[in-house]
Amino acid sequence: MDEEITSKGIIGRGMRVLLRAIRMEPFMFTLGALGAIVHSGTTIAGAFVSGAIVDMVVVPSVENGEPALAALAIAVVVLIFVSLLKIAGMISRRLGAGAMQFRLQARHRRLVTRRYLGLPVSWHQKHQTGTLLSNANADVEAAFVPIAPLPFAVGTLVMLAAAMVALFATDWALALVGTLIFPALFLLNVVYSRKMSPRMTRAQQLRAEVSAVAHESFDGALVVKTMGREAEETTRFNVSADELRDSLIRVGRLRGLFDPIMSALPDIGTLAVLVVGVWRLSSGAIGVAEIVSVTFLFSVLAFPVRAITWVLADLPASVVGWERVHGVLKATGDMTYGNGALDREGPARLAFDSVSFSYEDGTKVLRDVTFDVAPGKTIALVGPTGSGKSTIASLATRLIDPDGGVIRVDETDSRTLKHAELAASVALVPQVPFVFDDDVRGNITLGRDLGSSDPDEQVWNSLRIAQADGFVAKLDDGLDTQVGERGTSLSGGQRQRLTLARALAGRPRLLIMDDATSAVDPKVESAILAGLKDSDNPASVLVVAYRRATIALADEVVYLEGGTVVARGSHETLLAKVPGYANLVTAYERAEAERAAEGEFIDDSEVSA
Ligand SMILES: Nc1ncnc2c1ncn2[C@@H]1O[C@H](COP(=O)(O)OP(=O)(O)OP(=O)(O)O)[C@@H](O)[C@H]1O
């Protein structure tokens, strides 16, 4: 994604981002821009009111030796009126600009996050989590930074145009100074943003890199600590952080060089106005009031002109941020859905019909896989590592789609089901359990309507079948106990059982367990499978199994080797007839006995009644 972002045509691309932002927030932009125009108009008016005051109050007072009180009173009223208008303009400009910027940021954070959830697993596997965090945060912010000064800049443009008209109306020689200074300001701004663009692009990329490295270090904290790699990991982070620092210093250095030049130009203008003005005054072409007005005009212009600089200076970062955000928003690979619906009651049927699948690298992982799980039956999926068991689990839950063949739930091709229909009937309990930073109840319900008059009763029911009710009852606050990042740390087996209870709480009609009870004591695992069969909502089960006891509880075994179904039948038949299967199960049994001897399931052997 990053390679596509170049500094070519940055102003044009930046303007397109701004126009898109204006189209998305027309009301707030209008409020801000109108406020800015009023502010600019009153600033120019202020310059000419000052000139008029010199002409009508100061000069007559000096000439007559007594204050021109009536004119002074009028001047005060006009000045107060102009100032009040200016204040109102400023408030409206700031409100409009602020609301526009923060609303756009919030909206795009939501869009990016929603897009992440919509994109398929394959897309996520290709993108680092740190980069995704940076897209949703730093990039969204950067994309809309120029929005804050945008209405001000628009107002300033109007002000510059009005100032030019006023200058020409006053005196051509003074107008000449303006025609030199104003374009020079623009030119400088353009040069600045051209030079800044590649520096900003690099800084933004490095920001994402720092975030990715940091995320990986935190995620792998356990490995880093146990392997004693803290120093190396810190160095890796420091290298990234130093690179970002240097890159930001390069940005700052350029800003430091251009900023003073940009503030100095209007002052040079003021100086030129004084020189030209004195010459014009001596030749009688203009009066003192005109010189005061124009000098005042140049001095009040110095600050607003910076607003244009702010917008242009932040354009490169905005373009980079926006293009990274847009990269996520336009990412394709979405799954398509049909209108099909499934029954809501009774165990479901799952059928794989000549299914083949390859990951993006092109190697075929599954070939012509055909098997079915009849309603209410438990099928054990057994096979050596890498034979394709997890891939079958992902296909059955439609995390991925097959390249060939059909997967049917009941009698319906799962690709023709409407969105979320499959999730209502089929639940996956993954290999690696995930516990949210929430209480036990929240982790089980996930905010779903469990369709029960007593949701807690249903939560306890699921915990019971998952053999998790015992340890949850012993937690200090029961279902209210915080688990996950902020709360109680759970053992591996407890996390697995909580994840299983979460799947069960949705009363699935088909349960796919992908090695989901590997950290659970074998006795507990058997109790779970037995409980599933006896439950009030019996489901069909496809279980990736290793243990003889688990396999023995299944109605049938599907044995995979190298992505194809080699045999299917009862455990005893396969044991007797398929040497590969017999070797594998015996090897598992030996490994299991070693794990038990090492006391691996010590915290996890409690079986509830
Ligand atoms: N995201 C991926 N991209 C590319 N190849 C993958 C991906 N996931 C798995 N594979 C490959 O697909 C094959 C099947 O993997 P899968 O995880 O389905 O096997 P498995 O039988 O579940 O293995 P295990 O028992 O070790 O969990 C393996 O060769 C694996 O390297």
Describe the overall structure.
- The chain is α/β, with parallel strands linked by helices and 609 residues long.
- It folds into 2 domains: 2-329, ABC transporter transmembrane region fold, CATH 1.20.1560.10; 350-434 and 495-604, P-loop containing nucleotide triphosphate hydrolases (Rossmann fold, 3-Layer(aba) Sandwich).
- The protein has helices spanning 10-24, 26-64, 69-118, 121-125, 129-143, 150-170, 172-219, 221-226, 230-282, 288-329, 389-396, 421-425, 440-445, 455-465, 469-474, 492-505, 522-534, 548-553, 571-577, 579-597; strands at 350-358, 364-373, 378-382, 404-409, 412-413, 426-429, 438-439, 482-483, 510-514, 540-544, 556-561, 564-569.
- The chain has a 6-stranded mixed beta sheet with strand order 6-9-10-3-11-12, with helices on both faces.
- The protein starts with 9 loop residues before the first helix and ends in a 12-residue tail after the last helix.
- The model is unreliable at 1-5 (pLDDT under 50).
- The structure holds adenosine-5'-triphosphate.
- Adenosine-5'-triphosphate (ATP) is lined by residues 125, 359, 361, 365, 383, 385-391.
